[in-house]
């Protein structure tokens, strides 16, 4: 196993986000009048790489596919500005990935993704992982490639972290190569075949699992240990990229050598701060901002911990 030094490698998607604000997310067949349009760099892989870089503790590399268009140039600039070391596949004649996002007044969102160049990321594109401690993957690129990258990382002694989003059923051959699985409640239900969180943790098919629960916080199972981390209380403006911020921050801190419970607390704080700002990558906080929030919140209310435990169907645990 690699030591807690080196870098984090992210392989995944990059999209230019077209974001419209509206009173509520449209129902099927409904047209809602929005309030303006904003463009933000995004995509699960790129968001997580940027969040990882801003969390500090380890340098961040990313394998990404971009079209030879202005959207690709915008995404590349955003990642380089965050000191992400890029390994770019140029998808000539293919548009850079895009996402169309509606954000409601309650800070909820609905997202439609046009993968574009992301679909060209192939198994042979992964470079040598070198001194990487962790490989962070998502599901906005071809599943064949995701599984090939996980296999290569395992062979190289690099820990594999999979954020199984967007939700889909996954083959056991992929899950068997995952060291840490990160999912939200819906994604866990899809993988485990149950809405019961405690049962889902047992059935997920991976020994170490983190389940993000939005404004409630998160729960993790690592072997026989369970960790509960209540959310930090903030005024949410836009939840876009909150989950990606969590994933990137979590893996960065694990790579830096933090214990899982410590990394979970940092990731929850980073995710909470991301909800206080509009956009995807534009909302990801710096390490100094997260450290300030952690210092201001020495401990959570026992009631928050108990409510989280009750929601997950487990006994309240220390964290």
Automatic annotation (TrEMBL):
Alphabetical list of Gene3D superfamilies matching this protein: 3.40.1190.20
Domain Carbohydrate kinase PfkB stretches: 7-287
Residues given in the record as ATP binding sites: 184, 212-217, 243-244
GO molecular function: ribokinase activity
Cofactor binding, note field: Requires a divalent cation, most likely magnesium in vivo, as an electrophilic catalyst to aid phosphoryl group transfer. It is the chelate of the metal and the nucleotide that is the actual substrate.
Major place of residence: cytoplasm
Role: Catalyzes the phosphorylation of ribose at O-5 in a reaction requiring ATP and magnesium. The resulting D-ribose-5-phosphate can then be used either for sythesis of nucleotides, histidine, and tryptophan, or as a component of the pentose phosphate pathway.
Protein name: Ribokinase
Native source species: Lysobacter arvi
Name of the gene this protein is made from: rbsK
């Amino acid at each position: 196993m690699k030591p807690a030094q080196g870098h984090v490698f992210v392989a995944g998607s990059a999209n230019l986000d077209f974001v419209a604000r509206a009173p509520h997310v449209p129902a099927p067949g409904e047209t809602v009048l929005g309030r303006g349009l904003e463009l933000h760099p995004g995509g699960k892989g790129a968001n997580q790489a940027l969040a990882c870089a801003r969390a500090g503790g380890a340098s961040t590399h990313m394998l990404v596919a971009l079209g030879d268009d202005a959207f690709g140039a915008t995404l590349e600039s955003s990642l380089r500005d965050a000191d992400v070391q890029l390994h770019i596949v140029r998808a000539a004649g293919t548009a850079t990935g895009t996402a169309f996002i509606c954000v409601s007044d309650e800070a909820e969102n609905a997202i439609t993704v046009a993968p574009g160049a992301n679909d060209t990321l192939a198994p042979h594109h992964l470079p040598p992982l070198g001194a990487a401690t962790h490989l962070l993957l998502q599901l906005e690129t071809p599943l064949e490639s995701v599984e090939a990258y996980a296999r290569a990382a395992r062979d190289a002694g690099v820990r594999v972290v999979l954020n199984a989003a967007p939700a889909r059923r996954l083959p056991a051959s992929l899950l068997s190569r995952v060291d840490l699985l990160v999912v939200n409640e819906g994604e866990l239900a899809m993988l485990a075949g149950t809405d019961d969180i405690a049962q889902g943790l047992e059935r997920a098919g991976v020994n170490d699992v983190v389940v993000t629960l939005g404004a409630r916080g998160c729960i993790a199972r690592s072997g026989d240990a369970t960790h509960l981390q209540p959310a930090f209380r903030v005024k949410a403006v836009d939840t876009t990229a909150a989950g990606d911020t969590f994933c990137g921050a979590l893996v960065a801190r694990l790579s830096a050598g933090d214990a899982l419970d410590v990394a979970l607390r940092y990731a929850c704080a980073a995710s909470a701060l991301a909800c206080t700002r509009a956009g995807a990558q534009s909302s990801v906080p710096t390490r100094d901002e997260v450290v300030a929030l952690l210092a201001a919140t020495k401990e959570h209310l026992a009631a928050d911990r108990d409510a989280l435990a009750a929601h997950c169907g487990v006994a309240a645990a220390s964290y």
